[in-house]
Amino acid sequence: MITASALGSFALIVGLLTLTPGLDTALVLRTAALGHNSCAWGVVLGIQTGTLAWGVLSSLGITAVLTASHLAYSILRWAGAVYLVWVGSRIVVATLRRRARADLARAEDAHEPDADGGFGSGWRRGALTNLLNPKVGAFYMAVLPQFIPVGAPHLTTGTLLAGVHILLGLLWSGVLIAFAQVLRGSLRRPPVRRILDRISGTVIAGFGVHLALGD
Questions:
Q1: Is 158 within 8 Å of 56 (Cβ atoms)?
Q2: What would the pLDDT profile of 38-53 be if each residue is shown by its tens digit?
Q3: Number of domains in the chain
């Protein structure tokens, strides 16, 4: 059975990883800042679903394929890169096409449905973003086995460790969503929203380019 010391060490590692600003932070903040609560929590739970999947796959040794096969890693890396560039580009292009009058009407109409979709749409976006990032799988493959004691059931212990990561991710995402809600009034003004969308879209697409160019 895993010791409290090992569990604490793992929590520290994934906690620092969770707090480091990155793609997940950009997705959650952007969605929550625009007032899409259901979509924002969908993104959060989609990301954590991907985390759970990587944890289970790593426990079973399946993600070893990513480190052993350059072709498998490259295919997943390019799929993730194309997806992120596509998502980021869509956000940026939408700001260029959106008319100022339509923006104003959208911002003032509190009963208008989420333009970015609801919970299901957010969940798919978060899950795909996480699952198509081979670096997450490589991280789990490199780190998780070090915290599974000899003789311990790999699947149960690995799932427990992934659960720690998920819990920390949920707590931090709750903080991000609460922070975005405080600034929501200002961030939903049409000129500010266009700037926010262009920045977040560029950041997301930039992560895709970085993933494509990375080793």
A1: yes
A2: 999 999 999 999 999 9
A3: 1
